[in-house]
């Protein structure tokens, strides 16, 4: 059985103090058995959050990293630096990085490989734009992103990856995909993994939905057989609303 993941992506929000204040109120409510809860915060808040999260079931993640160990890459943060802080997760290939920072599928692949070889769990994002959706290219685009992101990984390594299907048009728009449409794409992603590797890898890999997930719609996604949780932007910024999402996943785990 796949353990559900509820991951918050704060994006470029919260100072260190704001992050700690949030964590104090979130910690009790956000601790749920049977759910992997993750908070992906800006780099500067990571050391304080990792310290605050010690002894809890809440994992802390970065939102990006460079693939190289170290070097003359002004402004970048490398995988060993995340290891040294004790961060277990890293978001890779978010559409905002692809769009605003020109991140290519090749870069996403190098980062994913580097994360795996540094024992970091990569949360790898894929998803089509509105234009691609309207041109009926969703499956083609998502397939290519998935295949390229995972290229060169062994079957064992692929099962350590968490994939997140985030249709670009649903991010921050208040307009989520319907649960049925998200399920259809995610089922297709799982099939893509089965075709590239084998059925066992496809059965084991966690695939999340992201894009305007809120307490009011999370259940509809979680009830889909292939959706293993959510990657959440806006609704993760408030401790109460994020805790409600974790609770929804915990409740479902209990029922299932
Ligand atoms: O980009 C997202 C998570 O990575 C989704 O953002 P929203 O939940 O704000 O739509």
Automatic annotation (TrEMBL):
Q: Which UniProt key words apply to this protein?
A: Cytoplasm, Gluconeogenesis, Glycolysis, Isomerase
Q: In which pathway does it act?
A: Carbohydrate degradation; glycolysis; D-glyceraldehyde 3-phosphate from glycerone phosphate: step 1/1; Carbohydrate biosynthesis; gluconeogenesis
Positions of substrate binding = 9-11, 172, 212, 233-234
Q: What class of enzyme is it?
A: isomerase
Coiled coil location: none
InterPro entries, per the entry: Aldolase_TIM, TIM_sf, TrioseP_Isoase_bac/euk, Triosephosphate_isomerase, Triosephosphate_isomerase_AS
Q: What is its EC number?
A: 5.3.1.1
In alphabetical order, the GO MF annotations are:
triose-phosphate isomerase activity
Cellular location of this protein? Cytoplasm
Q: HAMAP family attached here?
A: TIM_B
Q: Which family does it belong to?
A: Belongs to the triosephosphate isomerase family.
Quaternary structure and interacting proteins, as annotated: Homodimer.
Name this protein carries in UniProt: Triosephosphate isomerase
User: What organism, scientifically named, is this protein from?
Assistant: Salinithrix halophila
